[in-house]
Here is the input.
Amino acid sequence: MAPQYDAVIVGAGFGGMGAAIQLKELGLGNLLILEREDDLGGTWHVNRYPGLAVDIASVTYSYSFEPNPYWSRLFAPGTELKSYAEHVADKYDLRRHMRFDSVVQGARWDEEERHWVVSTEGQEPVTARYLMTATGFLSQPQVPKIAGIDSFAGTVIHTTAWDDSVELNGKKAAIIGTGATAVQLIPELAKKVAELTVYQRTAIWVLPKVDFAMPRMVQKVFARVPATQKAARAAMSTVLEGVMVSAVLHFKQAKFINNGAKLAAKGHMRRQIPSAKLRAELTPDYDFGCKRPTFSNSYFRTFTKSHVRLETNSIARIEPDGIVTADGRKTEIDTLVLATGFNLWDVNFPAIEILGREGRNLGKWWRDNRFQAYEGVAVPHFPNFLTLASPYSYSGLSYFTTIESQMKHMRRLFGEMRNTGSDVFEVTEAANAEFLDRMTANLGDSVFYQGSCETSRSYYFNQHGEAAILRPTSTVNAFREAGRFPLESYKLNA
Ligand code: NAP
Here is the structure.
């Protein structure tokens, strides 16, 4: 029986939309995009907290084939990313393929029919020749298991469920977490609340953000002469690539660059915080890059305000009206903000149950063996399946680099399928093993294994102690391989 769809894509964020654009271009236009949220945009739909903005320059943090000359700032605010996602969906006619409020439970490869059966809560299962999961890396919010948290009588708000109707003015608030989200949110919260206590478990490296409003003139030039925006993108991408490759991936060879980044962050702190004690508390004790660094011009300064307090004692419990730290002190609060991030390794790889040939369960297999995916997209035993948010797939610092190299991989793979009249692909065990070995060897020089990361509590590391998210190669290498990987890496019509 012919499947209902050419492909089912799980996720209507930038990854899922990129895959859909690519499949349509390849003539596979009978698509269904299933999205658990009530609208498109992925992370840029879900995250709406005050201060949300990109921290990769917008000329780079966007599709290269769909430049937007009108970003209002060098680092655009989150609302503009959401509008950009809507623009892309309209321009590439993607909305009609999308089904919102559709929580995918799982997908199963049907060996006899040679297609995927995808189950969605409260809906009839659907069938598709191909399955692509574009469920993001940071999409399963983490609510901390702190004793007494459920007894808190005030307002609790996680940063992924921001509610603008919650009154902040005059409140006694606390925020738990000091990751990239908190770094953006804390200065904004401090503008409104009467008291703010920041609970920090692990300090974070923060660099200055060289941000400015895009002059109207520049926008006009970008619009009239697209080559100028391309050049700006190339320049920004080169800087990012330099930082990533030298400070993070080649830490062993270029430790001085990593140390330079730490010095820059410390200097930034010194300029904003006179108190040596406070600076010491805010200074990480792990190497730059173990954890994703952040950028802000207002984070450090916020701690010098009289109504803002940094708390570095660990949280013992939460009571209905406050937080008690391990030293027995209680801070009374009425509003609790959880900037506690996401759970990647227990629930996100993969985000849904995926059963391949002979019922192999992808999540179990990854956990029992090692997290792995050939070129960050394909797994043996899982035919006609591309996992777009997977181990070793995140290439470079802009997520769009990952998306576009995966689109390129799809062009080569599906082009070969068309040329050979095939309708089933599966990556070989040998190609997968070679890729995993190579990535493991490459990581040997990185800050993750050569640096001091033990105290960083970084989500880059999984439960096996492996830093298995980032692809440890240059983005140039990722793009080159996406267009040139050996075609024998895949068995067709096996
Ligand atoms: P995160 O980096 O995982 O930070 C979570 C914070 O919550 C950490 O400080 C963590 O402390 C703390 N935390 C978690 N559970 C805790 C507990 N039980 N007790 C005390 N503290 C606890 O999450 P995030 O800040 O949401 O950022 C996630 C990622 O999203 C970033 O790394 C970045 O990739 C992306 N992001 C990007 C932007 C942007 O501008 N483009 C903005 C925001 C986020 P520990 O470190 O001790 O675990």
About this structure: The pocket of NAP is lined by residues 53-55, 138, 144, 146, 176-182, 184, 199, 201-202, 292, 315, 339-341, 457, 459 (CB under 6 Å). The mean pLDDT is 97. Residues 195 and 273 are 19 Å apart (CA to CA).
